[in-house]
Amino acid sequence: MNPAQKRAVEIAGAVMNRLRLKAGQTEKEIASWIKHEIASYGAKPSFDIIVGAGARSIDPHARPGNHRIKNGEHVVVDLGAKYKGQCSDITRTFFVGKPTKKFIALYDVVKTAQLKAISAVKDG
Questions:
Q1: CA-wise closest residue to 79 among 2, 9, 6
Q2: Which of 53, 67, 87, 113 is the most interior residue, by most CB within 10 Å?
Q3: SS3 at position 91
Q4: 3-18 and 27-40 helices cross at what angle (nearest 10)?
Q5: Per-residue pLDDT at 60
Q6: Which of 72, 75, 21, 24 is nearest to 51 (CA)?
């Protein structure tokens, strides 16, 4: 990985790690904060930032809207940083409030599938 690629990854990770979601925020407010934070590192978003809450979280290309996040909703955030021509991409699912048993069960299924897929990847 070249230095610009590494920095693009670091920026996206730092922004995602500092993201704090709370009930009452709109998807647009979250996306705006993300854009501002990426710019503070001298980068630009790699692509249109995705923020989808509740039922909209299943849309892999959800454009941030005026939906206000409620307690009990899950939120998918997909962001990336473009730094010196190199792009990064990171996606995370958050839960605002206390996760339901159903959410935890579904999350565990997806996590197990992801870990199996990662362990199956081999060189060549």
A1: 9
A2: 53
A3: strand
A4: 140
A5: 87
A6: 75
Please give the pLDDT value at position 124: 82
The answer to whether 76 touches 93, Cβ cutoff 8 Å, is yes
Q: What is the pLDDT of residue 20?
A: 96
Q: Give strand pairing partners of 76.
A: 52, 93
| 50 in Cβ contact with 19 (< 8 Å) | no
Buried b (16+ CB within 10 A) or exposed e, 83-93: beebbbebeee
* 19 within 8 A of 34, measured Cβ to Cβ: yes
Query: How far apart, in whole angstroms, are the C-alpha atoms of residue 54 and residue 95?
Result: 10
Structure tokens that stand for 51 in this block:
């923020």
Low-confidence residues in the chain, pLDDT < 50: none
Q: Which single residue is written with the structure tokens 């590494």?
A: 6
Six-digit token string for 55: 């039922």
